[in-house]
């Protein structure tokens, strides 16, 4: 019987490995099931199966990318990352009479600070 390891699936589906090392990637997958760690991310670990492959989906990544401010606990910081950006634009407002060309390649990280005490979501974003 063929053995399927974590690295085989990661290569086939082009997954991003977010933890582990070379040894953990060589582990065989022994259970044909996955684990989405919703409760574990919240700090609750009842009977966690270490034999399963852990999948972080959009909801889990959204939870990880949100955090409350340590100084102002009512302030939610939401971070969004956009990878593999290749963007060109021309600005004619920066210098009167001039058109300046810009190009950006790489990853963009944007953070919104949301005041959870303000019920109107349109007004809750705090801009620095």
Produce a short descriptive summary.
This protein is α+β, with helices and mostly antiparallel strands and 128 residues long.
Description:
It is a single chain. 0% of the residues are buried. With 128 residues, the chain is α+β, with helices and mostly antiparallel strands. It is built from four helices and six strands, in the order ααβαβαββββ. The termini are far apart. It has a four-stranded antiparallel sheet with strand order 3-4-5-6. The protein has a two-stranded parallel ribbon with strand order 1-2. Helix 3 links the parallel strand 1 and strand 2.
Spell out the blueprint of helices and strands.
Elements: H1 6-13, H2 22-25, E1 34-35, H3 38-41, E2 53-54, H4 58-64, E3 66-68, E4 75-91, E5 100-115, E6 125-126
Parallel strand pairs: 1-2
Antiparallel strand pairs: 3-4, 4-5, 5-6
List keywords for this structure.
4-stranded antiparallel β-sheet, single chain, 128 residues, 33% strand, two-stranded parallel sheet, 4 helices, alpha+beta, 6 strands
Element order: H for helix, E for strand:
HHEHEHEEEE
Strand order of the largest sheet: 3-4-5-6
Number of helices: 4
The amount of helix comes to: 10-25%
Our estimate of the beta-strand percent is 25-35%
Number of strands: 6
The largest β sheet comes out as: 4 strands, antiparallel
| Regions with little confidence, pLDDT below 50 for 5+ residues | none
Distance between the termini: 59 Å
Using the CA coordinates, give the radius of gyration: 21 Å
Structural class: alpha+beta
Describe the global form: flat
Mean pLDDT level: 77
């Amino acid at each position: 019987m063929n053995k399927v390891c974590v690295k085989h699936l990661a290569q086939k589906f082009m997954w991003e490995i977010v933890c582990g090392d070379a040894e953990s990637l060589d582990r065989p997958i022994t259970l044909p099931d996955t684990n989405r760690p919703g409760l574990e991310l919240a700090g609750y670990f009842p009977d966690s199966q270490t034999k399963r492959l852990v999948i972080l989906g959009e909801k889990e990544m959204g939870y990880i990318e949100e955090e409350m401010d340590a100084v102002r606990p009512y302030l939610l910081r939401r971070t969004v990352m956009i990878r593999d950006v290749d963007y060109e634009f021309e600005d004619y407002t920066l210098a009167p009479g001039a058109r300046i060309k810009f190009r950006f390649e790489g990853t963009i990280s944007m953070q919104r600070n949301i005041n959870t005490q303000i019920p109107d979501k349109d007004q809750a974003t705090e801009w620095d």
